[in-house]
């Protein structure tokens, strides 16, 4: 057993002991788990959020693209960093008003209510689940690579070992995931990534020298069109790169768990602020490391190993092994929450709702665990027999999610007459087009990015499908009309609205207008 | 008049007006009314018998008795009994058997997600209460434009209402 493997095992055992000791401290109480460590301060909360967002993509996918394409890769980071801003300014205000008027708390519930159709919810949930699984597959591949590097095992064995650990941890563990272990992890990763970036930039001589060195190797690394100007003039590709991350999040089936404070509490705005600042910094760091890799690691065979190898270059072996162990643990905590979400939606929203309405809770939990196991097995097969790059997999999943949901959301607020048939056609054909385009490599033949192709087809499907469906109810058309109007509320009041109160607000409005029936 | 279980108001009339006024100094705020919104409070006991990692305790949630939307609660609420005018009470729209099922479903889902149990844990109902949470209805006026807010009198959180 090599030193790195020992460090990895010690690190994992350390996390386990830390997790168990903290769980003993809370007197075996379930509250701390259920409420997700609400008693912790903003700094711990912020760093915990940070460690969850740092997944295999950040450590391996992003740097690999930067290593291969140079500054072109930054388009993806811009979409990622500015995505929420674009959303807020373009669609955000109207969608927010619509959500309030509909009393919807999550994006998929919003679509179900706006298009007055359970089928829309089911199709949206299925698309989300399938492509969330693709994210998990990307994490699996990253886990396999990290473990291969740490233990010296073959990729296949490391992958099976890694996925086995993730699945076992997801269905039985839980202790590693308590906030304190995430907090420790976040510190290791943040310090590690920042350390490598600073060391790398010092070694190269700063950003200006980085650019000068890149230009000396190949000036097209500095171009916004990619290495060898591969995407020259293809604004469709650039637009696709930016939009992919900007739109995708709306298709994710956020399970919004509301908390009702039983006494007045201070909100954790500090945590959100700290976390946002970290995010903005760390979205760009992996790409910068990819550029550094071009200069320092010209013979690198696997671009996804840029960060691990730079870690071994700049730090003593022990520290690099700790960083890789933290990465492995981060992959575990990201994967387990997605897997858990997938299992819960499949078992409760699909199995219990559609297939077996009278299923007992024991059966539902069992189905959920079997679904997780199945996703794991499929993941291993995909990752061993035809492993795509982590970047390609994440971009593919994001692209399909964007193609499925973008038109549905835009039409929901800009068209009074957009109906359920139109939106179903749009979601299904948008997703199908992106899949066919990607699998058949039609972008090479046509020069059109799969995301752009999916977008065009989903718009056409919406227009055509809409002709065959019944128009939305008059009440819904009125709501769409209302959502268009500007809200006459002062800015500072608007800024602090608690949107989780939307269902109550809708009901109180109806009550005040005399539209509510008598008590049951 | 109806005798109902409710919670003690933390954000009083003056406090609400003062808090909103601090956020927007150029706006006049006035209390129009107070309404009582129905929720079911459910407390379950939870037990996991795993010898290595045993876990037990109580978990509680509320179910909005109009929309059926669940929410976790952070501590056991203290209720007081008050006589309230019927015109200020929102009517319940869900039967009790519906709300208890929603509560169980929600807790199983949350436990399954947050605690990661391999099998369904045992949860049993310890207590349940119908209670009414007070919300202030506040009118605001800024530059000739009027708007209406509902303010949670316990947490101080607010949301606009779409009433004229």
Would you mind describing this structure in some detail?
The complex is a heterodimer of chains A (520) and B (164). Chain A starts with a helix and ends in an 8-residue tail after the last helix. Chain A is globular, with a radius of gyration of 24 Å. Chain A has a single domain (3-26, 41-251, 269-485), classed as Up-down Bundle (Sodium/glucose cotransporter). Chain A has 520 residues and is an all-alpha fold. Chain A is built from 22 helices and 1 strand. Chain B has one domain. In chain B, strand 2 and strand 3 (55-64) form a beta hairpin. The longest helix of chain B has 19 residues, at 96-114. At the A-B interface, helix 2, helix 8, strand 1, helix 14 and helix 15 of A face strand 2, strand 3, strand 4, helix 2 and strand 6 of B.
Label the structural class of chain B.
Answer: alpha+beta
* CATH architecture annotation of chain A: Up-down Bundle
Number of domains of chain B: 1
Strand order of the largest sheet of chain B: 4-3-2-6-7-8
Q: What is the share of helical residues of chain B?
A: 10-25%
Largest interchain contact? A-B, 75 and 73 residues
Distance between the termini of chain A: 68 Å
Strand segment tally of chain A? 1
Radius of gyration of chain A: 24 Å
Largest sheet of chain B: 6 strands, antiparallel
**SSE order of chain A, one letter for each helix or strand:** HHHHHHHHHHHEHHHHHHHHHHH
> N-to-C SSE series of chain B?
EHEEEEHEEE
Anisotropy-based shape of chain A: globular
Low-confidence stretches of chain A: 173-177, 263-268
Summed up:
The complex is a heterodimer of chains A (520) and B (164). With 520 residues, chain A is an all-alpha fold.
SSE topology sketch:
The complex is a heterodimer of chains A (520) and B (164).
Chain A lengths: L2 H23 L5 H4 L7 H12 L2 H14 L4 H29 L4 H8 L3 H34 L3 H18 L6 H26 L1 H12 L17 H14 L10 E2 L8 H28 L9 H9 L2 H39 L5 H25 L4 H25 L5 H20 L2 H5 L3 H17 L7 H11 L6 H5 L6 H11 L8
Chain B lengths: L1 E6 L5 H11 L4 E21 L6 E10 L5 E4 L5 E6 L11 H19 L7 E21 L2 E8 L5 E4 L3
Antiparallel strand pairs in B: 1-5, 2-3, 2-6, 3-4, 6-7, 7-8
